[in-house]
Amino acid sequence: MPNSYTTLWTNDLCRELDRTGRAGQRLTMLFGGPHQSLPSFVRAGVRPGDTVFPVRAFRKRLHLLGAMEVSRIIPYKDAGAELHDDDYAKLLDWRTLKAGCVTEVLLGPPGSALGFGTVVPADLLSRLTYTSRRGERTLKHVVDGELARSISVQGIYRLAPDSATALRQLVLEHSG
Question: Does pTM surpass 0.85?
Fold first, then answer.
């Protein structure tokens, strides 16, 4: 059964993506690596068929930036040899996402359009649930419907099924 994950993008990355005109473009690839600044999707358990929701913590709100279903995961060092010309062009086009040391590339069919205006509503934020081998957890540091600190979303985390459904619905409602 496919899983869904969130991955936190930095405000600097989001500003750069917005500045370079990426808003409105459909997500087709994501990058992972060995460091906290660019964590590994593979180490987090992401597999083909799973959905990844990039998010941003900004001004005490959690912003849902889009969604992409993963079709393939390849080592970054093999991207030139493994990708068809069209996909390699997309890799170069999305190089802004390659902040830091990249070791893996997640490819997908075109996902939702990248957007910076979708805020996770306060009621959903307070019940957003993640799951792991240790059990389920909600976000910490949610105060009066606002995200006081982003530590609970820093990294790549697997969503509980109800939360994944709610985020998927939010993407659908806000996609053009």
Answer: yes
